[in-house]
């Protein structure tokens, strides 16, 4: 991964861990390049500064421009723009922002351990202590779309395939952690 060439106003796609919606990516922009590979980055829009996160440039929540489209993941543009009409090409032309080069990001790792329909236990990313029975709904590059059993699609969440929040069935019982009923 490229470590020193990040610049303010570079754009990319990200999972917004502060948002309730964890099944889509958002258009994001770098606000500050900090020391030791850290970035202040936020979802594009009028509240970008207050919605921003501090993450390491190797974070698994960052993706190159076009990742969502190439993996058929919903992409949310700036707040106030219609989700279905957001296009990177016109946005970049209108703003003069530059996309972060694709070699800045963790490469898609082909790993076939997660299969659609596989059962597992997963921690809800919004309620960190809630362990739930879940099912792999889709595999999208290095992301796994998980559906929580008994919940509507509105609560589906994307996880990096290496996430320590995805666990084998029986993990909760073995570790003495309560498993939420579907």
Automatic annotation (TrEMBL):
GO CC, any one term: nucleus
Record GO terms (molecular function): chromatin binding; histone binding
This protein's UniProt keywords: Repeat
Entry protein name: Uncharacterized protein
Stored InterPro entries: Mbt, PcG_chromatin_remod_factors
Chain ranges passing through the membrane: none
Cleaved signal peptide residues: none
Keyword Repeat listed: yes
Pfam (any one): MBT
Domain of life: Eukaryota
SUPFAM superfamilies membership: Tudor/PWWP/MBT
Chain positions of MBT repeats: 86-182
One example of a Gene Ontology biological process annotation: negative regulation of DNA-templated transcription
């Amino acid at each position: 991964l490229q470590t020193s060439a990040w610049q303010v106003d570079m754009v990319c796609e990200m999972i917004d861990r502060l948002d309730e919606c964890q099944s889509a990516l958002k258009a994001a922009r770098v606000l500050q390049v900090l020391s030791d590979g850290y970035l202040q980055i936020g979802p594009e829009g009028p509240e970008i500064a207050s919605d921003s996160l501090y993450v390491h440039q190797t974070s698994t929540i960052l993706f190159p421009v076009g990742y969502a489209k190439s993996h058929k993941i919903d992409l949310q543009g700036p707040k106030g723009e219609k989700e279905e009409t957001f296009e990177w090409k016109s946005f970049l032309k209108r703003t003069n922002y530059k996309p972060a080069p694709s070699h800045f990001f963790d490469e898609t790792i082909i790993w076939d351990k997660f299969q659609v329909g596989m059962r597992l236990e997963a921690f809800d990313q919004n309620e960190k202590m809630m362990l739930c029975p879940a099912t792999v709904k889709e595999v999208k590059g290095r992301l796994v779309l998980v559906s929580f059993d008994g919940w509507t699609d509105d609560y589906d969440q994307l996880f990096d395939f290496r996430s320590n929040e995805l666990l084998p069935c029986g993990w909760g019982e073995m570790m003495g952690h309560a498993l939420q009923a579907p």
